[in-house]
Amino acid sequence: MPIKIYNSLTRKKEDFVPVREGAVTMYVCGPTVYSLSHIGHARSAVSFDVIYKYLRYKGYKVTYARNYTDVDDKIIKRANEEGVPSQELAGRYIKEFDDDMDALGVEVPTYRPKATETIKEIIEVTSKLIDKGCAYAVDGDVYYSVRKKKDYGKLSGKNIDDLEAGARVEVDERKEDPLDFALWKASKPDEPSWESPWGKGRPGWHIECSAMCMRWLGETVDIHGGGKDLIFPHHENEIAQSESATGKVPYVKYWLHNGFVNIEKEKMSKSLGNILNIRDVIKDYTSEAIRLFLLSSHYRSPIDYSKDSLREAEAAMERFYKTLQRVNTEWPETKNIDFCVHCNEGRFTEMLDAMDDDFNTAEVIGNIFKEVNKANRLMDSAKASGKHEGLLEFSYILSMFHEASEFLGIFGRTPEGYFTEKNSRASVPAEEIERLIAERNEARKNKNFKRADEIRKGLLEQGIVLEDGAKGTTWSVKG
RNA sequence: GGCGGCGUACCCAAGUGGUAAGGGAGCAGUCUGCAAAACUGCCAUUCAGCGGUUCGAAUCCGCUCGCCGCCUCCA
């Protein structure tokens, strides 16, 4: 069964057939690096990380490029405020972005091009557009002429006349049409600039993505992704430029757009002051809980960030790893399971069908938790009967977790690894907790339950939960 | 004004023609010194509302109501 992908261009789910059989080229718009990245960047990055991983999982050779916009008005403004060169500022935030991605378990794409390293190509494409009569230079600026592209607006479903009727665009007398957009901007004295046939200047925003795509992936790419807000004007303009320059249609076969992250039901925006940085979220929740939260809704739907929803995601992750921990201790013979021995048995069909259907990660997660329940049930009944029967079933379940982790990027760690990350947030030193546990168990042995409960309650007030199990007392940070 | 999307239980959420996955919360039970965790049971005769198509609709069509996004930098 082919993968089905919702294509923003046709507004339909389509069978995924890449240009070259067995290989996929994929480009995703990355961040403009002038500040720390927020949870919205995380959603886009994680969504496409999963798509990248899944396509590879399905056997495609995927070439994935995600850019950094490292020259832009906002970067220049911020750099001038701080009194540092704009490239230094951009470099700093590229590093911060990479650190955030690493913390979220987002894989490094095949290529991570920067706009400033693609100037030569940008100038070439711009020149070609002028030569073809699709663009014109005025006072060192170069504009793309939207009227020259008959199907301009095909991605966003807009037409030029409607856009002009609702004009909120500032009228620039030098432009032939108010909707014409800059391919190249003449630079002011305090701005970074490059030599060009039109004088010193710097690239416009949209052209860099076209140039980077062509350089790293070719003139037609299979998948191009980004946030929903990029549909217009950014992606619309990319299509216009690229198709005009190369004459090849389509520029992109499948356009994918992820939904927004709202904060407590409100749009995240600078003016509302509710921008939530990845850096801050990572401090309070485990990286897998954050990924689980992002992947438990479909990538195209809007999601609402709230403390409750993250707490729930963390509780679910805990349930998962607690079960895995239990399997490891109660069924040590499962350690020798050869993952993927069941791959061709049709066992994972449900899960893979869900992924094939426009990457329905939410359904996969539902399937995973059904298996978690099954594992616990098996262990309970083994405990009751005293017999370890059903090893084959465990091998199925654990293989399924392993397979899912290959493309979801969660459910793949050791329980110890997970709980170490989680418990590093403890407000009480581990040695102190261990000491209190020992004291409490001594009290319990002496039937001094008052003291035992006192210790447990005291720790709970500091966010530490104690659990008495068959193998002794364990502790964890309250979710 | 133009374009697009959404409305499923207390909350989150999957399901897009065959009779409502999953998670969280809650209640009851098993287990436990008591808890916690785990397990079991309960928790939407119904999918915003009203009509229509169909043997059959949360799913398709029409209308109404409500919410949201884009059209300006934005993931």
Number of helices: 16
Predict the CATH topology of the largest domain. Rossmann fold
Q: How helical, in percent, are the residues?
A: 40-55%
The description of the largest β-sheet is: 4 strands, parallel
Number of domains: 3
Number of strands: 15
Ranges where pLDDT stays below 50 over 5 or more residues in a row are none
Short description:
With 479 residues, the chain is an alpha/beta fold.
Question: Key features?
Answer:
single chain, 479 residues, alpha/beta, Rossmann fold, Four Helix Bundle (Hemerythrin (Met), subunit A), 3 domains, four-stranded antiparallel β-sheet, 47% helix, RNA-binding
Q: What secondary-structure arrangement, pairings included, does this model have?
A:
Elements: E1 4-7, E2 12-15, E3 23-28, H1 39-57, E4 61-66, H2 73-82, H3 86-103, H4 119-131, E5 135-138, E6 141-144, H5 160-165, E7 181-186, E8 201-203, H6 205-216, E9 221-227, H7 231-246, E10 252-258, E11 261-263, E12 266-267, H8 278-284, H9 287-295, E13 303-305, H10 307-330, H11 349-356, H12 361-385, H13 391-408, H14 415-423, H15 430-445, H16 449-461, E14 464-469, E15 472-477
Parallel strand pairs: 3-4, 3-9, 9-10, 11-13
Antiparallel strand pairs: 1-2, 5-6, 6-7, 7-8, 11-12, 14-15
Helix pairs in contact: 2-3, 4-6, 4-7, 6-7, 9-10, 10-12, 10-14, 11-12, 12-13, 15-16
This protein binds one RNA strand of 75 nucleotides through α1, α5, α7, α10 and α12.
